[in-house]
Design the sequence.
């Protein structure tokens, strides 16, 4: 089952890009034997977009057909790492083709995009810059794969 991070804005070279690339590589190594992967990350160019409505349309085009849509939103549900791993494992076991995690821009996701999502996920009540949200999500996806694989990375 493929996983995709679709986020508004391009991530330039730098520490955030390096961290995402590292977690994506770790996820792919750990997840493939479990039927998970590949994990990819797509940035949506914002120069021609104006507001959450335009961003939602661009994000929708980036989400592969048939994928579970998960909106990252401060109003979403907070999950523990084992709960996220369990949810991903269930989607895999249900033979879902993929899961797309969408991250909006400075104004967040449009209401329509949030309503279309099968799940809304929050990293807590604080608002995080989308660059850091991508890194945190990539790490949590790797952690989920590690939990499912039974490796010692996650120590609860």
Sequence:
């Amino acid at each position: 089952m493929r996983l995709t991070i679709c986020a508004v804005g391009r991530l330039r070279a730098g520490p955030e890009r390096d961290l995402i690339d590292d977690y994506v590589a770790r996820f792919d190594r750990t997840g493939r034997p479990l039927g998970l992967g590949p994990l990819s990350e797509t940035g949506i160019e914002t120069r021609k977009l104006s507001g959450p409505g335009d961003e939602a349309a661009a994000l929708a085009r980036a989400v592969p057909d048939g994928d579970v849509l998960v909106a990252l939103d401060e109003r979403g549900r907070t999950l523990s790492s084992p709960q996220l791993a369990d949810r991903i494992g269930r989607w895999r076991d249900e033979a879902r083709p993929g899961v797309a995690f969408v991250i909006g821009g400075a104004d967040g996701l449009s209401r329509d995009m949030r309503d279309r999502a099968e799940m809304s996920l929050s990293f807590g009540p604080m608002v995080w810059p989308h660059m850091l949200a991508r890194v945190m999500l990539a790490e949590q996806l790797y952690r989920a794969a590690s939990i499912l694989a039974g490796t010692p990375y996650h120590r609860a």
Remarks:
- The chain has a mean pLDDT of 92.
- Helices lie at 15-31, 52-62, 81-93, 111-116, 130-149.
